[in-house]
Structures are given as structure tokens and as C-alpha cells.
């Protein structure tokens, strides 16, 4: 699974379990187009979500999501040819409401031509103290099956477990604060079978060669986040978020986000946001090793390096109401755009001519777009 997929999944899970209260989700249908363009990667495709209540205590949902991926990133160009592939993700879920308790079940599977993953999610949300406090607990378990194109003998597996705890508190009529904690345990084949490290070889034409990465077969991760939302007196709000992450591979990371939401008239909502992410490299990461198989574990994936990114984004939502007698209650059209700049501190651009180990540090930018229509009924 790529970093983009992993980060997206982590963010969605964290947001879901931190903000979910003991109330059934609204009946709705969403149709979305998403696009990621940057760093030689192109990822886009559609997504369809359907959600419907059954009575007053049950809600069911289904989601279909497609990624069409074209790869000509620096990693690919350095060691292989550009490629194209498609990933399809399917999920079904059910939410059960009993008084102030909400129990959620979800199953997801993801399929590529060389990768299959499935996961099960269980969550419990409970309101306390006059509905001013919401406690959420979550558990996920997943398994991956990894193959390698062109090598029929290659087959590996990985197992993943995730525990989540969240607490949301209404502080005043205008302010909500949330805390969340997450523990992740991974075991098995945890690296990308196509990634390579480079090592010095004076006999090679470029002065170095590549060999396959080798990762540890276990990983333990912990994350904590705090959020705050404040409603302003002129139909607007501001929010802030801070996250800390660390794992047994030596990666320490932090994320800070700030946003502003403003309502115009009865139909328009505009959001502006900024986000900064920074991480320290894994203990076994190096841009250039001194010899082949220098260490038992070794990585050169740029997402294992020391880097940071800064993103700026905007969202525009237009909402229109239907007739009270209509089956459909309302609909929204939503456009999200984010621009991200990535800077790497110890990953070098080997596509440029320079002495070995002195190539320019790598950097790139990406644009992320999401356009979707929601219908509530």
C-alpha cells in the first residue's frame, strides 16, 4: 500500500472515531471524483457512497472506490519503467443505535493486480453528562497479501491491528475540544517489493548500484491528537489540530493544521486551511550505503527519510433545498483543492548529474482535487 493510501486511511479513521457521536448518520448518496497529481504520480478515479437508515436504530452503508495509478516517480525512473495499474476498494458497514450508544461494524477489501487487503472495523461511541461528552473506542484488524509482477514465486503476507480511543468534550456553547489516541501493530512483510536501496560500487558506470530493500517484520506505532473547534458569532468557525506520531522504527512525526470556515447567505460554505507535516527518518534509512548488504535491514524509500510538507487548501460547498414534499431533502456540490510542497532532507535526486552522494536534495509539489455531489433523503 502506498504512503498516500496509508496516510489517507489513517486520517479518515482518526477523524471518524474522534468526531462520531451517538446518533445515526444521515441518509445520503455521494458521487465523487478524486485526483492526485505530483512527483511523477497520477492517481484518480470515482467513488460512490450509499447510506440508508432502517427504522430508528439501524443504518447501513456501502462504498465503492477506484484508483487509477500511473507511476513515473523518481523511484520508478531510477530503477524501472513507468507503469499503470488500478486499485478497487469496496466496503460495507452497519451502525446500531441504542439510546446513547452507537455500535459500528465495517468490512473493507482492496484489490490490485499484485496486492490484496481486507480489514474489519468495530467501534463503540457513548454520550455522557447530558450529551456534553462523547467517548469512542475502536478496533481494526487487517491482513495483506503481497505479490510481485514478473515473479510468480513471490508471495508474502502482513497482519495489522489498530486500537483507538477518543474523547470529545463540549467546553462552552461555542467550543468543542477532542482528544484521540491510537496504537498500531504491524507484522509480516512490511516493505514495498519494488523499492530498492543504492550502494557504492566503483565498478558501476554511475558509481553505485541498487538492491532490494529489507525491512523489519514488526512495527509498533503510537499516535495522539488534540483538536479544537470554535464557533464565531458571525456564522463562521475556526479549528486547529495537532498530532504526534512515533514508531519502533525510529520515525517521529508531527502534524499541525489550522482552518477557517465561513458561511455566505443560506447556500454557500467556504473553508480555508493550512497544514504542516514533518518527520524524522527511520533508523535503518540511508540515501547511500557504503556497500551491498551493509546492514541486515535497510531502506531508501523517500517516505522513510527525514522530510516535511506544507499544504494549503480551500473547499467550496453549495447547498440547495428541495420541496418539503420531495423524497430528496437537500443536495450539496462540493469542491476541495489542496496544494502540497514536499522537501526531503536526506533523499537525493539521482536523476540529475552530480558526484555520487552529492546530488541535489529532492523536492516536488502535488495537487489534490476532490469534486463530489451529495444527496440527502
SSE string, helix = H, strand = E? HEEEHEEEEEEEEEEEEEEE
Radius of gyration: 23 Å
How would you sum up the major sheet?
A: 16 strands, antiparallel, barrel
| Residue windows where pLDDT falls under 50 for at least 5 positions | 1-19
* Secondary structure tally, helices: 2
Label the overall shape: globular
Strand content: over 45%
Strand order of the largest sheet: 1-2-3-4-5-6-7-8-9-12-13-14-15-16-17-18
Q: Can you give the helix content as a percent range?
A: under 10%
Estimated structural class: mainly beta
Tell how many strands the DSSP assignment holds.
18
pLDDT averaged residue by residue: 92
Task: Give the termini distance in whole angstroms.
Answer: 35 Å
Folded structure, characterized:
- The protein has helices at residues 3-19, 74-79, and strands spanning 28-38, 41-54, 58-71, 83-98, 101-112, 115-128, 133-148, 151-172, 175-188, 196-200, 208-212, 218-232, 236-247, 252-264, 268-279, 307-321, 330-348, 361-376.
- The protein has 2 helices and 18 strands.
- It has a 16-stranded antiparallel β-barrel. A two-stranded antiparallel ribbon has the order 10-11.
- 6% of the residues lie in helices and 65% in strands.
- The model is unreliable at 1-19 (pLDDT under 50).
- The protein is globular.
